[in-house]
Design goal:
The complex is a heterodimer of chains A (110) and B (77). Chain A is built from 5 helices and 4 strands. Chain A is α+β, with helices and mostly antiparallel strands. A 4-stranded mixed β-sheet of chain A has the order 2-1-3-4, with helices on both faces. In chain A, strand 3 (73-76) and strand 4 (79-82) form a beta hairpin. The chains are: A alpha+beta (110), B alpha+beta (77).
Chain lengths: 110, 77
Amino acid sequence: MAEVNDRIADIIKDDDVVLFMKGTPLFPQCGFSSRAVAILDHLGVAFSSVDVLQDMEIRQGIKSFSDWPTIPQLYVKGEFVGGSDIMMEMFEAGELHQLMAEKQVARAEQ
Amino acid sequence: MAMQASEIETMIRAALPDAEVTITDLAGDGDHYAAHVVSASFAGKTRVAQHKAVYEALGGRMGGELHALQLTTAVPN
């Protein structure tokens, strides 16, 4: 348990924006993960992703790490932001764009 | 394994008695729902805290038997 928490802590420290998801950005395996990717693409921020379907330890571990029951989960600069519903609410309110600007995250390469 | 819309609403209202709960069966299959929950108890809470309050009301079913619940929360106007 402690070990997986360390692994997750390292992952969210290594990149500004990290999405824990089912599948990959190119081939999402769940509608909610697909929506999360679409939002990040739309914002044009660089992000890394972790496919929890390839890693059962992280799939379970991330739920207790974030105290959040579902996947996808978005982290920005090491902080938990929310799942796909919250991403959508924040996106529609312009708050996600604002958050990315405030945290000065890197833009995706075009 | 799927949950009834009425069951979801009852559980949310048991934990958040003032809540106005609107459940939509998205796919008509009793398995993909959207819930909109409006409660004064959300005032001053972050979105994450608001959603967590609803997940707690659902007693661990979220992410298990309730895979597809699209959730939005709000404070009454």
